[in-house]
Automatic annotation (TrEMBL):
Gene3D superfamilies: Ankyrin repeat-containing domain. SUPFAM superfamilies: Ankyrin repeat (SSF48403). The lineage of its organism: Eukaryota, Fungi, Dikarya, Ascomycota, Pezizomycotina. This is Ankyrin-2. ANK repeats lie at residues 42-74, 75-108, 109-141, 142-174, 175-207. The gene is ANK2. SMART domains: ANK (SM00248).
């Protein structure tokens, strides 16, 4: 394993060029024989840096030279996780079509790339992952689906995209709460509207026996009307 550190001429180095999207410099250095799996401290390789920045052209060059797309960073995240985290849907296309990445690979918390895209609010990345067969009801180590993650974070457009895709609207977390319970608890009327319109179960009970309407922390006439 070869490791390097940041230097004053960082942008001219192999990893620096990958991180800023300079695919021509990356190709030049690979032609000169630079080691493609060179790492920074912490295990970051060129593929990780390109994925973080959403640099599809750099990734195409790296893939053409045999870069290891299954390489993980210190959190267990793959390059697909990093691309999804940044909402880089075009790069997601490249990784799936040209790189053959495992779309269901999990990080150390059991989260897939779809979890990452959903939690961070990237509807376009969510759409691309689902279009390519990502499991919509995948569970992380906390028994959360991408929909539960998105609702907890208040990601309206992601929730809309997931509902449109036909995802199960009534998964339960470790407390038995559905996405509708969580949206009501957090006072997110727009999410309640989307979930109810999509057919979420208004009568589902959590582990304490509460229905979604029982989770209201303050009286909201609009929300109350949606939950009748």
């Amino acid at each position: 394993m070869t490791t390097v550190e940041y230097t004053a001429d960082w942008n001219d180095t192999f990893l620096g060029a990958a991180s800023i999207g300079n695919h021509l410099r990356v190709a030049q250095l690979l032609k000169q024989g630079v080691y493609i799996e060179t790492e920074l401290e912490g295990g970051l390789r060129a593929v990780h840096l390109a994925a973080r920045g959403g640099h599809a052209n750099v990734m195409i060059v790296l893939l053409a030279h045999g870069a290891e797309v299954a390489a993980i960073d210190h959190t267990g995240a793959t390059v697909l996780h990093l691309a999804a985290s940044g909402g880089h849907w075009k790069l997601i296309q490249v990784l799936i079509v040209r790189g053959g990445v495992d779309i269901e690979a999990c990080d150390r918390r059991g989260m897939t790339a779809l979890h990452y895209a959903a939690c961070r609010g990237h509807a376009g990345a969510v759409r691309e992952l689902i279009r390519n067969g990502a499991v919509k009801e995948a569970l992380d180590q906390d028994e959360c689906t991408p929909l539960l993650c998105a609702v907890r974070k208040g990601r309206v457009e992601v929730v809309r995209e997931l509902v449109k895709s036909g995802v199960n609207l009534n998964p339960k977390d470790e407390a038995g709460c559905t996405p509708l319970h969580i949206a009501v608890l957090n006072g997110m009327v727009d999410l309640v509207q989307i979930l109810v319109d999509g057919g979420a179960d208004k009568e589902a009970r959590n582990d304490l026996g509460f229905k979604p309407r029982g989770m209201m922390r303050w009286q909201d006439q609009n929300m109350a009307a949606l939950l009748r």
